[in-house]
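Q: Here's a chain of 338 amino acids. Please give me its 3D structure as tokens.
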Amino acid sequence: MKAIEITQAGEMKMVVREMPQTGAEDILLKLSYVGLCGSDLSTYLGKNPLVQFPRIPGHEISAVIESVGAEVPATFQPGQQVTVVPYTNCGECSSCKQKRFNACRYNQTLGVQRDGAMAEYLAVPWQKVLADEQLSAVQLALVEPLTVGFHAVDNGKVTDSDTVVIFGCGMIGSGAIVRAHLRGAKVVAVDIDDSKLEVAKRLGADHVVNSKSQNLHEELQKMTGGHGPSVVVEAAGSPFTYQAAIEEVSFAGRVVCIGYAGSDISFATKLWVQKELEILGSRNANPSDFEAVIKYLKSGKLDENLLVSKIIAPEDVPAAVQDWSENHGKILKILVQF
């Protein structure tokens, strides 16, 4: 079968791989669309320490069931449209014992610690497959990236009494904007790209701030009556936004961190104590987040064209990723159509 492989940092090409081997509890999938994620870009650039080369990227999946193993439940049948939960969990570590499977100590994500879905076929355990005939193939490919922002908002315990600031209006931040809006919160989106801020408005942001051209502190103070936002979601992975999150959040506020910064960051630690902040990490997503995103997409409230920057063929992936690495500011989601 054809597959896209990152052979080493800065090098990606089409290769031919053997068809996946399937066991009794496995489902063989024929891929429809696979999304390119920021983690795939980091892998391509050689910045992901969890990856060993060569690696097939891809964990944002839309597919059709090709065949099922002998012990797969009868609810799964060839021809069904599906998406996939791309993480593993051991069931025994401290996270798993608390049913926080998304933070499993030994997690292996498709396309990161193990080969991913950027190929014609993929075999996965049936327990990781979610079938849904109401969603389109494109919508199914958007489920997983939206779940990460949904999960962050859940971690932040956001309610309709909160003002939530979201730093970074990429795909992950977009999911956080949607979820916070659905919770009834006042949502403020912050980015340095006006086109992404326009999308943020259409996704439910009540206010937007371009932190490059506007005074972020002054704008947030005006919006919150001088208190600062009660919740900040950091989805940009920038030293500036990490520092701003601590500085701008209200006293007794919550900060939820999703983004990976490329370097260590210095904080005014007195603010943690004086404000009595809750500072939380947020990783991947749980089954409940997948259910929530699927329910949202079924509502018809999202025009997926807002989030899909382009759809490309597999043979165009190397050039597209190279271009993305040089001009990543305008891209929300690239889908590869198999």
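Q: Can you summarize the key feature?
A: The CA atoms of residues 165 and 232 lie 5 Å apart.
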